Amino acid sequence: MITIIALILVTIGALNWLSVGIFNFNVINWMFTPSAYVGARIIYALVGIAGVWLIAYLIYNKFSPKRIHAVEEMASDKHHSDTM
What we know:
By secondary structure, the protein is mainly alpha-helical. Helix content is 86%, strand content 0%. The protein has helices at 2-23, 27-31, 37-62, 65-83. Helix 1 crosses helix 3 (37-62). The longest helix has 26 residues, at 37-62. It is elongated, with a radius of gyration of 21 Å.
């Protein structure tokens, strides 16, 4: 569940950067008035935390023992089927 929330937050951040890059329009700053600067900073912080979470999630899942052993098992299964 937290990974899905992180994906949503990172997508919001990516769409904001897209609007800045193409239209020079920052949606987050537009949503919060200058007096609510703290609200925009909170959103930016949440998007950043979500990005760090997803990086850790990807690294953990790429190098998890389950995946590493799965590759070894696939190789040994292939070896056994070649020798039969």
